[in-house]
TrEMBL record:
The keyword Ligase does not apply. Keywords: Lipid transport, Signal, Transport. Belongs to the NPC2 family. Residues 34-159 form the MD-2-related lipid-recognition domain. Monomer. This is MD-2-related lipid-recognition domain-containing protein. GO terms for biological process: sterol transport. It holds the Pfam family E1_DerP2_DerF2. Residues 1-20 form the signal peptide. The lineage of its organism: Eukaryota, Metazoa, Porifera, Demospongiae, Heteroscleromorpha. The keyword Transcription does not apply. Catalyzes the intermembrane transfer of phosphatidylglycerol and phosphatidylinositol. One of its GO terms (molecular function) is sterol binding.
Length: 163
């Protein structure tokens, strides 16, 4: 379970961060990055986020930091992660397809317990890219839902992992 949580945290870090390298006015390197796939922006918004280094390298550290604006109290929820690799442009291999308790994830990322009141929250997360991941392009998605099944947030990303 511990390695799975690390993989999930890696995926969330990659997917939920709206990097300054993704088409904002600070996109100095024109690197690909996360895209918002949320149905609505009324629940939450990621702002002032950064993801380094890019591209990722297995066995090396990465850092994600930023700010999240939460507009409504989070009582409970789920987070659905998927991460797939297009192997040799012939078949998609799914590395992660998990639904987890959102409140447990918030404890790991923000060091807060549910219910989480509306507000602006900072996060800073550093970890190592698992050596399990092969070099190549990965496609990730994270969708967050509240207790009523309403989508709170959705992010997708195409990310490269080098050797």
């Amino acid at each position: 379970m511990g390695r799975l949580v690390e993989y999930i945290l890696l995926l969330l870090s990659v997917v939920l961060v709206v990097s300054t390298l993704t088409g904002s006015t600070n996109n100095y390197y024109n690197e690909p990055g996360p895209k918002d796939c949320s149905v609505t922006k009324k629940f939450s918004k990621l702002i002032n986020d950064s993801f380094t280094p890019y591209p990722l390298i297995p066995g090396k550290n990465y850092n994600v930091q930023g700010t999240i604006l939460i507009n409504k109290t989070v009582e409970w929820g789920t987070i659905h992660f998927t991460l797939a690799h297009n192997f040799r442009n012939t078949v998609n291999i799914t590395f992660v397809n998990e639904k987890l308790n959102l409140c447990d994830f918030i404890v790991d990322l923000l060091k807060l317990h549910c219910p989480v009141p509306p507000g602006i929250y900072q996060f800073n997360y550093t970890d190592t890219v698992p050596k399990l991941f092969w070099p190549g392009r990965y496609y990730g998605k994270a969708a967050v839902y509240n207790e009523e099944g309403e989508e709170l947030m959705c992010q997708t990303i195409d990310v490269n992992i080098n050797e």
